[in-house]
Amino acid sequence: MAFGCWVGVFVLLSVWPSVRCSDLPGGAIETACRDRYLLVTTQLSFAGNQPRFEAVDTDGVHPITKQYGSECGYMFSILLLRGHAELRASYFSCHTDNQDDEVFTFSFNLITTAASGVETTYIVNATCFLPLPWSPREVSCEENYMEVSMRSDVSCLSGTTDAWTAALAHSSATSTWQVMFQQEGQQLIPMSFSEARELGYVFHLTQGRLVFRSPYTPRSVMGSINGSVVEVVHPILFSRQRWVVMMVDWIVACSTNEGMYDGAGLVWQTPTLLSPLVSGLSGLESIKFSMGVDGELLDEPITAERGYSLDISDTTVQISVPFNAAGGYRKSFVMDNMYHEFYVVHLYYEQIFLDDCGVETRLRLHRPMNTPLLIQHLSIINQTVLEDRVFTVYLGNLYYDVDLVAVTLNGHNFTILDATKSGRVITMVPRPNSNLHAYILRLPFEDAAVHKLVKRNIYFSMDINYTLVILPQEEPYYYLASVVAQFNDVFPPVFKGICNEKSISFQMDHKPFDYLWEVGVGPYILTTNLAAKRGYIMQNDSKSLTLEVPLFSVGYTYKDINLKQFYGSFEIHSRLPKTLEVKSSLAKACLFQTTEVIVCSTEGVVTVVTDVTLAIPGAEPNGTFLLDSTCRPQETDDTRVLFSFGLHSCGTRVQVDHQHVTYENEINVEHKSQSVNAPVKTRDTASVYSLTFTTGTCGFNVQFSF
Ligand SMILES: *[C@@H]1O[C@H](CO)[C@@H](O)[C@H](O)[C@H]1NC(C)=O
Ligand SMILES: *[C@@H]1O[C@H](CO)[C@@H](O)[C@H](O)[C@H]1NC(C)=O
Ligand SMILES: *[C@@H]1O[C@H](CO)[C@@H](O)[C@H](O)[C@H]1NC(C)=O
Ligand SMILES: *[C@@H]1O[C@H](CO)[C@@H](O)[C@H](O)[C@H]1NC(C)=O
Ligand SMILES: *[C@@H]1O[C@H](CO)[C@@H](O)[C@H](O)[C@H]1NC(C)=O
Ligand SMILES: *[C@@H]1O[C@H](CO)[C@@H](O)[C@H](O)[C@H]1NC(C)=O
Ligand SMILES: *[C@@H]1O[C@H](CO)[C@@H](O)[C@H](O)[C@H]1NC(C)=O
Asked: pLDDT tens digit string along 239-251?
């Protein structure tokens, strides 16, 4: 296209040098000749948020305001989603130089306002060579005006009888052109073009065409055709020249239906036959329907590929554009901590029809449509399987432009990277055939971040605060989820106790929740160390734990000791680590044969069973005593004695060194005279046994500090 870019600059404050086209950032201002209008676009990044245009012609400069644009054939809008402002100027717009309805020359000022308030004016000149030949009648339904142009020699025009009558009645008064607007039920009142212009209507005559333009105004007729809203303006021009009354009966009609959102996409409909355009004639035949977006028609294969549809029935044409289809603009953002989105499409529509006389009418229509604000609801699915003992939480319905960046698990913050590094698995799951995806979070119940509550039942709970961001703007929002898992009747580990000849064995089968408890012996936790130190024999594999506690090792208590037997008992328990609350315990008491014993109870009572004849052959157990000779054995048999006495009695000696308190006593035996005749009791004694016992033996500990 022989069309260039002439851009100059002059700054109202005057000092800036002029800028040539090549000095402007790429795409800053662009022009394009479309079928029926010139398109001027300017990037908002360049032009700021409030650019405006003025049309320039030999008469001067004409600011394109909202009102002025709708009367003069200019449509200006700022399209934030697309980041640009655009001006569509009809080839018949007021200040366009028109050569033979074929070459159109435009001149505009683009005025931008910098943040500082300084205004800069750019000159935008463009020339368009008509890309598509005119049809005899052309109707353009712009967003802000209706325009009709007709070849001035079209013969097949008609008028209603009313109009003819009115035209004849008024024609005597004037030989210049007059116009009447026909409205149902209202009298036709003639007015001059300048009177009509004051009402916003523009008529003009080009080389070969008559042009009429009207804003959508309350004065136009709103009608409904087969469920569609149609706006109609019906001017009748007339003039008397000598004996002839010339009359031009015009009509412009546009379907002004709004687009609707039906849950799947945007739908727009229009009557198949826009009957006002028939103007009383019976025949009107539609021969071609096309659609497109952004002011350009598209070929059928492209619209089909994008999923657009154009359904034509006898009464209505219905166009639908699926949500987020190519050609439209979708925007997502956060509001009230929720993902919102909407979708906008600028529909362009063409319909060509023939009337009775075979005169072709081409109708073009711009229709911006948008969905309401849509909220994307996320879904949480609790996929936890109790048996696996892992929280599995599915967060779904996330759009492709949403990323999960962090999670807070019971108040602990993790970025996705941190979480993954520390073994908390977060997996992104695409959903096939959709632009949605999901995340699955897996967290074992044992994880430190999981809250546990152990009562009769065990509750695990986790509050998740997901941090999501919308890309690319990285706008965050949050989503909360809570999961719990409960196990009923979970009991602490249970031990079985078995009595052996010289030990007690305990056995515990491992169960899933054993880790919730610790195994204790007295105040101590059972560990491999403790077992080794005290001589317990511990075996622990994946199935069970066994502990063999040899008789007389630390932790036993003894009861009912006599020369034949005694009870030794050992207690093991499970308790909660934090509270040390004992949840189950087993004190196993076994009957053992008494051979040699030296034990000390927690109350400080020492019990000794020993064979005195091993030290002094022939010694009589009956004749034994302790350091305090009044302390005699409680029980004896042929060889053994059983003493039982308090630590602080029977002459027990106490020795203290840095680490131990040692108690000491002796078992002494009386010697009897061997003489048969004169049995004389002597008090010669021999110490057979020296008993020493430390505090440890006695089952209590004393802290010394010397
Ligand atoms: C643009 O057009 C106007 C009017 O047609 C003309 O006066 C002016 O010189 C042109 N400017 C440039 C830069 O071509
Ligand atoms: C609605 O469509 C039918 C054709 O199905 C047509 O006969 C009828 O005139 C239309 N209604 C209007 C108000 O145009
Ligand atoms: C977690 O994040 C929140 C909000 O970003 C912050 O207030 C809190 O201090 C963070 N906690 C930790 C442990 O980092
Ligand atoms: C979730 O996390 C965000 C950011 O850390 C915080 O602003 C919000 O209050 C949290 N929500 C709850 C319920 O804790
Ligand atoms: C989640 O799933 C677990 C296991 O199926 C179930 O016990 C729990 O009640 C579910 N609901 C919530 C809110 O965690
Ligand atoms: C026994 O082994 C299990 C693992 O098989 C372990 O969790 C447990 O702590 C061990 N118990 C003791 C007392 O060492
Ligand atoms: C020990 O003395 C008791 C009486 O004090 C007597 O009954 C018992 O037979 C004596 N036993 C021996 C072995 O001398």
From this structure: 877 777 777 778 8
**Torsion-angle region of 38 (φ positive above 0: left; ψ -120 to 50: alpha; else: beta):** beta
Distance CA 529, CA 517 (A): 18
Mean pLDDT of the chain: 83
The mean-pLDDT minimum among 8-17, 50-59, 206-215, 398-407 falls in 8-17
Decide: 557 and 601 in contact? Cβ < 8 Å.
Answer: yes
Q: How far is CA 55 from CA 69, 73, 196, 335, 586, in A?
A: 10, 11, 22, 40, 100
Q: Which CATH architecture has domain 137-254?
A: Sandwich (2.60)
Task: Report the residue among 379, 445, 484, 490 best suited for mutation to probe ligand 5: largest number of ligand atoms under 8 A from its CB.
Answer: 484
Residue 5 has pLDDT above 50, yes or no: no
What mean pLDDT do residues 466-484 have? 92
- pLDDT confidence of residue 169: 57
- Give the span between the Cα atoms of 377 and 44, in whole angstroms: 33
What is the distance between the alpha carbons of residues 270 and 275, in angstroms, rounded to a whole number? 11
pLDDT at 128: 95
End-to-end CA distance of the chain: 109
Ligand 4 centroid to Cα of residue 486, in Å, is 26
Domain 597-695 in CATH 3.40.605.10? The answer is no
- Compute the distance from residue 413 Cα to the ligand 3 centre, in Å: 6
Q: Give the other-Cβ count within 10 Å of 170's Cβ.
A: 17
- The protein residue with its alpha carbon nearest to ligand 1, atom 3, reads 107
DSSP annotation of 172:
T
DSSP run (H or E) holding 305: helix 300-306
Alpha-carbon Rg of the chain, whole angstroms? 53
pLDDT exceeds 70 at position 667 = yes
The burial of 25, by beta-carbon neighbours within 10 Å (0-12 exposed, 13-18 middle, 19 or more buried), is given as exposed
In whole angstroms, give the CA distance from residue 632 to residue 628: 9
Would you call 563 helix, strand, or coil by DSSP?
coil
Quickly name the fold that domain 377-487 has: Immunoglobulin-like (2.60.40)
Per CATH, the number for 495-592 is: 2.60.40
Return the CATH number of the domain spanning residue range 4-129: 2.60.40
607 phi and psi angles, rounded to 5 deg:
-125, 130
